[in-house]
Design brief:
- By secondary structure, the chain is an alpha+beta fold.
- 30% of the residues lie in helices and 26% in strands.
- It is built from 9 helices and 17 strands.
- It has helices spanning 2-28, 73-82, 124-130, 148-151, 171-177, 180-185, 191-206, 257-260, 274-291; strands spanning 43-48, 51-63, 68-69, 91-101, 106-109, 140-142, 155-156, 159-160, 166-170, 210-213, 223-227, 236-242, 245-249, 267-268, 294-296, 305-311, 314-319.
- The strands form 4 sheets. A 7-stranded mixed β-sheet has the order 1-2-4-5-6-9-10. Strands 11-12-13-15-16-17 form a 6-stranded mixed β-sheet.
- Strand 1 (43-48) and strand 2 (51-63) form a beta hairpin.
- The longest helix is centred in the N-terminal third of the chain and has 27 residues, at 2-28.
- It is globular and about 50 Å long.
């Protein structure tokens, strides 16, 4: 009996080996799947008390190192190399905007570039939708300043991209960028920037949905306007506060995270008033580090959320750590 069992097992083993050999050529013909080459949607969320913060990615632009003023090319490259940033063909710089749901308002801070700056940008609206909202739901747009990479996105082919929103800008920036007299005196190479700002706000002006505010004005509950001039005459930041938690959406305080945190005295060619921009940056860094504020930066690596820490005689950028949405429980 045992002999018969052994023969049966041996026969099954031999048959199984043959079966495996038979199917192996077929398995080898399965091709490797193609690479997807598509990035995840450009949004990221964090909770700030009762406020939901959604960072939105508009895309990127390459900034030439020569636009940085007040640092040698050698020192700039050393700092960038330290951060593993390839600076040989311009530095990839993010353009971010921020959507804040306060429970009472859906607020967009800055709006990206739309079609103003080429194919690597203009994704704010698609990422608003990917994040679960629609442009029609936004009731308030706060502009940190009227540069095209913050303003062009409010318009779509001459129409309001956010048809139910009121757009707010500071008087300092409105008086500068929307003035025909200032535009006429601007250098020829700068005139297109003035026109982009004027074209973007035009449909809101027509609909009486473009509002200019003064320092100290209250726009919506839970939001404080913080004057941060220099990059533009009326450059403003917005402090969102809920349940003793604070987030400062600071616009263009920093353009190069690898250089300007360590050396806040480094300015940018596009600063309207470089001296004032430097003074503002130094003051903001010191205050933010002292008070442990959350920061949202338009040109910090996406999602541009994090903290400012002290490091040596300068400062450092500490980006947010990926985490689930954490809602603070009621006490």
């Amino acid at each position: 009996m045992k002999t018969n069992v052994r023969r049966i097992l041996l026969a099954l083993t031999i048959a199984g080996t043959g079966l495996i050999a038979a199917i192996q050529p077929a398995a080898a013909k399965i091709s490797t799947p193609a690479q997807q080459k598509v990035q995840v949607p450009g949004y990221y969320r964090m909770q700030l008390g009762d406020f939901e913060i959604t960072a939105l990615y508009d895309g990127y632009v390459k900034i030439d190192n020569k636009l940085l003023k007040g640092i040698s090319a050698k020192d700039a490259k050393t700092l960038m190399d330290k951060m593993f940033i390839d600076s040989n063909n311009g530095v990839q710089t993010a353009v971010n905007a921020y959507l804040i749901n306060t429970g009472k308002n859906l607020v967009l801070v800055d709006s990206g570039t739309a079609k103003c700056f080429g194919p690597t940008l203009g994704a704010i609206n698609s990422n608003i939708k990917a994040a679960g909202y629609s442009p029609e739901q936004i009731d308030t747009v706060l502009l940190t300043h009227l540069h095209a990479d913050h303003t062009c996105g409010i318009a779509d082919d001459g129409k309001m991209a956010f048809p139910n929103a009121t757009v707010y800008a500071s008087k300092g920036d409105a008086d500068y960028w929307l003035s025909s007299a200032v535009t006429a005196k601007a250098p020829d190479e700068a005139k297109p920037l003035f026109k982009m700002a004027q074209d973007a706000v035009a449909p809101y002006q027509t609909a009486d949905k473009f509002k200019v505010y003064n320092p100290g004005d209250t726009l919506i509950p839970g939001v404080e306007v913080v004057a941060t001039p220099g990059h533009t005459p009326g450059h403003s930041s917005y402090l969102f506060s809920s349940k003793d938690q604070n987030l400062l959406v600071w616009g263009d305080i920093v353009h190069s995270h690898s250089i300007q945190f360590a050396h806040p005295e480094v300015a940018l060619e596009f600063d309207v008033n470089s001296k004032q921009a430097i003074e503002t940056r130094k003051k903001m860094f010191a205050n933010i580090a002292k008070n442990d504020l959350w920061i949202a930066g338009a040109h910090l690596p996406f999602p541009g959320l994090g903290h400012v820490g002290v490091e040596g005689k300068g400062y450092k950028w500490v980006p947010i750590e990926y985490s689930p949405i954490i809602v603070t429980p009621e006490k």
